């Protein structure tokens, strides 16, 4: 594969900071009543009056055109040259406001948002207005102090590798790859030996009943024949290196023992094989090539001898390859939950199967010649469909979410049973019949007309009945009467969960997942196929259960988003990188850097900004404090801390962007925690040293928490050392300090921790002040 | 059974709140009426209202029907419903929560009487005695006289021993019950 070496496109322009002479505009948003009902914004504004350089303005909705125009006018008229906004999370509107600032001629980096909604007004006791207002006063004051001291920087631009890795060869991945291949190179990898994902294992598709393989096979062949798509089956992601826009990814290929480029599908090998180990997965499989199941192979070599193309190699081993890509689309899909945990359903047993097994029996992958049959080979005359098996479960045993497609596919399967044998019976046991979607209610109606039996009630038990039948026990909730029914076959509609390995891939690419295990969208409604990593996209069931139509829609959307991303040619990377102010050439920073971004040249440390992720681990590593992260320097952080704590003592929580997102989710879910908590956003907790933490304590912090959400092991394996070092070096203050690793999805863990720590810090502070008072009174007594 | 329409007057919000505030009440509002509790219940066919219906009635605050239903007394506390409920509601514990409320409200019916006789026997003897239970219950329920021939035939087959089994130190047992009463009064 050709390596496309990324280059630094533009060098940052530097303007000098003029601390103290900046005109800072502080704009506070009432957000209807979302903020103003809890936070006294007037008081927050009045609190800044003393500072002549600051002007304050309060608006109903800053994000509206009225709100934005106000800021824009102020910038254009020269009233303000730096902007602090107190509003919702920067994750929501920072880009909005920064592009407005850019249009007004201001360096976008000179506009920052302080989150007083998701991390203040939404998460504290609504009655505690004084506490929340005091917190907001501090946060805004800190933000203004920080804004006064930061330098205007320009983002760095790096050229992109114009190639995309699509992970997953199901319908979502196939669509993404095909759509992209018009203008970009694509590598499509699939774990299984063939393309098609779950869709190739479906029979007819609702609501039109067209055959799944008939509509899918042409797409699979198109992928195979497309010159711009490299299709690799039996391939998984082993390792990810590099940064957004420029990844080096190691792929691992499992052996097939048959060279797919040589195999002509003649079938000579399978005729000679004495153990049935060499086979074609199924007739329509793409790639069209045989494969060997090594667990069956006796290694006799008969196939090798008979193959006219010399395509078979029994010695094939697992291999790896290295690819270079600029963007990744995750389309790893779903799998059914293992239903054996529901003891009362007795799965697996003969004639109790999942809906996916039912589908496969009637699909291209069928092992029964596409005949519906019981374990004994006869047709099931009475079939029950049990919905919500393992889903809509809030006990922790199953999954909370609804699997979305079961209501419709079970009706389709019931129709198929009736179609195959008119006098057969099909029963659907449901809790709620959810058939929203175009043509779905008509489908429901049509299924009822066909004579399918609907029972509203979750099945309680499935027990063996007489003569190998199955007895289903339930309550017909519409009548309020218990019922029992005998069936030949019971089809369980399982909860659909993210496929195995989703977490590993997400972690490798630095993409957060929700607590349900599905990939988290950048914005659930407005950015549905973007992730929080700007070069990683997602489509299909890895974002939640959905039907073919929606998976295809997301595949097309993801392709568009990838194309938009790659089309820019460059990726902007944050300018908050280390600056080497002083160097004695000791090389400690070079050793500390996990990304090989620092080297020693001519006895001095030299930074390669492209390799640097801005983690800041080099900052505390430097023994002479010669390294600072631009705009997160020790002095800047201290100024911010001083402002935050100027109002009242509080708990300082240094939080990285991944955990910051968790705090935002907690806010959206209105999880309550103490208003003493003050979050300080840092690019990574590793930039901190005792200097900054001690300053926090000196300014009045009752405790310090370090919360890290990044899953990159290069950093997380060093966190314990960081914590121990900080704990040791801040011991003199006798105040609590703690470190915790909290991923984006774990927002409940975060709020629990914040509450526990706030009360611990509070208790400790009380104890300390009592002690001090006693000491003072002791001294007074002595003096008198 | 006459089915009264559900009108605002039939709902008692104080009762509803009272039950929702108990430990088992926490999840009552999340019931989705799937019916797995009633489908799993070995005795739901004997109940006026199935467990699922009872939960719904608590949600609505239908105090009179809930407390006078036989459902809460028929429950055998097999816990099948509690184990299987996908929302983590514990109907068995709900029944146990509703019983003392029904007694405190002065509800009297066959089931309450039987429960009172049964617990009296336990309180005095420390063990259940079938003979005492049946004879005492018959005193409160005149209709039981019809069961006499059946009882006699059981006695003849030595299936109903006349001896009363007692535990060794019933005094201590009495103290335990008294302490229990006291702590409940305090609450």
Summarize the structure.
The complex is a heterodimer of chains A (784) and B (187). Chain A is built from 22 helices and 37 strands.
Write down the CATH topology of the largest domain in chain A.
Answer: FAD/NAD(P)-binding domain
Helix content of chain A: 25-40%
Q: Which architecture name of the largest domain in chain B does CATH use? A: Orthogonal Bundle
Task: Give the CATH class of the largest domain in chain B.
Answer: Mainly Alpha
| Largest interface, C-beta within 8 A | A-B, 23 and 24 residues
Number of helices of chain B: 11
* Oligomeric form: heterodimer
The CATH architecture of the largest domain in chain A can be given as 3-Layer(bba) Sandwich
Provide a descriptive summary of the structure in words.
- The complex is a heterodimer of chains A (784) and B (187).
- Chain A has 784 residues and is an alpha/beta fold.
- Chain A folds into six domains: 14-158, Rossmann fold (3-Layer(aba) Sandwich); 163-253 and 318-333 and 499-567, FAD/NAD(P)-binding domain (3-Layer(bba) Sandwich); 255-317, Alpha-Beta Plaits, CATH 3.30.70.20; 339-492, FAD/NAD(P)-binding domain (3-Layer(bba) Sandwich), CATH 3.50.50.60; 577-629, Alpha-Beta Plaits, CATH 3.30.70.20; 649-784, Rossmann fold.
- Chain A has 22 helices and 37 strands.
- In chain A, the strands form twelve sheets. Chain A has a five-stranded parallel β-sheet with strand order 11-8-7-17-28. A five-stranded parallel β-sheet of chain A has the order 19-26-20-21-22. Chain A has a four-stranded parallel β-sheet with strand order 3-2-4-5, with helices on both faces.
- The longest helix of chain A is centred in the last third of the chain and has 37 residues, at 747-783.
- The radius of gyration of chain A is 31 Å and the shape is globular.
- The termini of chain A are far apart.
- The relative contact order of chain A is 0.10.
- The mean pLDDT of chain A is 93.
- Chain B is globular.
- Chain B is mostly helical.
- Chain B has helices spanning 13-21, 36-40, 51-60, 63-68, 71-74, 80-84, 91-104, 110-125, 130-140, 148-156, 170-186.
- Chain B starts with 12 loop residues before the first helix and ends with a helix.
- The model of chain B has no long low-confidence stretch (mean pLDDT 91).
- Chain B has two domains: 8-104, Fumarate Reductase Iron-sulfur Protein, Chain B, domain 2; 110-186, no CATH class.
- Chain A binds chain B through residues 344, 388, 392-395, 398, 431-432, 456-461, 473-477, 480-482, and chain B through 27, 30, 32-41, 44-45, 49-50, 52-53, 80, 84-88.
């Amino acid at each position: 594969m050709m390596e496309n070496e990324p280059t630094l496109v533009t060098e940052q322009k530097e303007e000098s900071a003029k601390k103290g002479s900046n005109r800072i505009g502080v704009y506070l948003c009432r957000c209807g009543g979302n903020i103003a009902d809890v936070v006294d914004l007037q008081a927050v504004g009045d609190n800044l009056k003393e500072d002549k350089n600051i002007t304050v303005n309060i608006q109903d909705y800053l994000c509206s055109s009225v709100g934005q125009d106000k800021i824009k006018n102020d910038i254009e008229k020269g009233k303000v040259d730096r902007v602090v906004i107190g509003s919702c999370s920067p994750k929501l509107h920072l880009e909005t406001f920064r592009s407005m600032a850019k249009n007004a001629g201001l360096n976008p980096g000179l506009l920052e948002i302080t989150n007083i909604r998701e991390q203040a007004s939404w998460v504290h006791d609504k009655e505690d207005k004084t506490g929340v207002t005091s917190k907001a006063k501090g946060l805004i004051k800190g933000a203004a102090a920080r804004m006064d001291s930061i330098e205007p920087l320009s983002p760095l631009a790096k050229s992109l590798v114009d190639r995309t890795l699509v992970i997953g060869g199901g319908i979502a991945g196939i669509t993404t790859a095909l759509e992209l291949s018009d203008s970009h190179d694509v590598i499509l990898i699939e774990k299984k030996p063939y393309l098609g994902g779950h869709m190739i294992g479906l029979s007819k598709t609702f609501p039109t009943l067209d055959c799944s393989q008939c509509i899918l096979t042409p797409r699979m062949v198109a992928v195979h024949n497309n010159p711009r798509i490299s299709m690799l089956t039996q391939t998984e992601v082993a390792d990810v290196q590099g940064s957004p826009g420029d990844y080096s990814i190691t792929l691992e290929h499992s052996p097939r023992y048959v060279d797919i480029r040589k195999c002509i599908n003649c079938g000579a090998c399978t005729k000679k094989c004495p153990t049935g180990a060499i086979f074609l997965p199924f007739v329509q499989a793409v790639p069209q090539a045989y494969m060997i199941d090594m667990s069956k192979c006796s290694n006799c070599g008969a196939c090798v001898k008979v193959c006219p193309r010399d395509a078979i190699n029994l010695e094939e081993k697992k291999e790896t390859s290295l690819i270079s890509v600029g963007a990744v689309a995750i389309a790893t899909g779903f799998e059914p939950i293992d239903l054996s945990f529901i003891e009362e359903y007795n799965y697996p047993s003969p004639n109790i199967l999942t809906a996916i097994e039912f589908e496969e029996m009637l699909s291209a992958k069928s092992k029964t010649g596409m005949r519906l049959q019981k374990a004994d080979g006869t047709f099931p005359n009475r079939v029950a469909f049990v919905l919500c098996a393992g889903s809509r479960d809030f006990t922790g045993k199953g999954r909370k979410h609804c699997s979305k497609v079961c209501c419709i596919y079970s009706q389709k399967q019931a129709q198929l049973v009736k179609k195959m044998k008119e006098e057969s019976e099909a029963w659907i046991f449901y809790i709620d019949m959810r058939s929203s979607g175009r043509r779905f209610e008509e489908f429901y109606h049509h299924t009822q007309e066909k004579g399918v039996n609907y029972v509203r009630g979750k099945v309680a038990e499935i027990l063996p009945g007489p003569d190998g039948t199955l007895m289903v026990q339930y309550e017909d909730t519409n009548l309020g009467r218990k019922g029992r029914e005998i069936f030949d076959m019971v089809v369980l509609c399982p909860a659909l969960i993210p496929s195995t390995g989703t977490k590993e891939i997400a972690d490798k690419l630095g993409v957060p997942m929700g607590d349900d295990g599905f990939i988290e969208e950048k914005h659930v409604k407005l950015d549905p196929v973007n992730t929080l990593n700007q070069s990683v996209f997602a489509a299909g069931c890895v974002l939640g259960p959905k039907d073919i139509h929606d998976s295809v829609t997301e595949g097309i959307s993801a392709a568009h988003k990838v194309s938009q991303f790659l089309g820019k040619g460059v990726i902007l990377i944050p300018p908050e990188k280390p600056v080497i102010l002083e160097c004695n050439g000791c090389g400690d920073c070079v050793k500390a850097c996990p990304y090989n971004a620092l080297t020693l040249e001519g006895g001095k440390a030299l930074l390669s900004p492209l390799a640097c992720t801005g983690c800041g681990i080099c900052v505390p590593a430097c023994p002479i404090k010669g390294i600072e992260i631009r705009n997160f320097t020790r002095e800047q952080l201290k100024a911010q801390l001083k402002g935050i704590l100027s109002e009242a003592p509080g708990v300082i929580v240094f939080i990285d962007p991944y955990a910051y997102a968790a705090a935002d989710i907690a806010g959206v879910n209105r999880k309550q925690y103490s208003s003493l908590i003050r979050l300080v956003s840092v690019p990574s907790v590793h930039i901190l040293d005792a200097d900054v933490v001690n300053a926090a304590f000196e300014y009045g912090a009752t405790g310090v928490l370090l919360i890290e959400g990044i899953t990159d092991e290069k950093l997380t394996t060093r966190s314990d050392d960081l914590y121990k070092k900080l704990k040791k070096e801040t011991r003199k203050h006798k105040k609590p300090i703690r470190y915790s690793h909290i991923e984006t999805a774990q927002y409940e863990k975060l709020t629990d921790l914040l509450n526990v720590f706030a009360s611990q810090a509070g208790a400790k502070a009380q104890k300390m002040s009592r002690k001090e008072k006693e000491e003072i009174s002791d001294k007074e007594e002595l003096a008198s | 059974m006459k089915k009264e329409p559900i009108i605002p007057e039939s709902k008692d919000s104080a009762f509803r709140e009272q039950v929702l505030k108990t430990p088992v009440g926490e999840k009552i509002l999340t019931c989705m009426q799937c019916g797995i509790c009633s489908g799993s219940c070995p005795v739901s066919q004997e109940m006026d209202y199935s467990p699922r219906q009872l939960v719904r009635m608590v949600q609505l605050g239908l105090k009179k029907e809930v407390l006078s239903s036989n459902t809460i007394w028929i429950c055998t506390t097999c816990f099948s419903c509690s184990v299987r409920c996908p929302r983590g509601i514990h109907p068995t514990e709900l029944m146990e929560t509703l019983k003392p409320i029904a007694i405190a409200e002065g509800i009297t019916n066959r089931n309450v009487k039987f429960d009172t006789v049964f617990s009296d026997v336990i309180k005095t003897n420390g063990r259940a005695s079938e003979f005492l239970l049946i004879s005492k219950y018959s005193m409160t329920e005149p209709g039981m006289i019809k069961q006499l021939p059946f009882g006699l035939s059981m006695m003849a087959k030595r299936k109903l021993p006349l001896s009363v089994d007692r535990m060794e130190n019933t005094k201590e047992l009495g103290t335990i019950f008294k302490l229990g009463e006291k702590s409940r009064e305090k609450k």
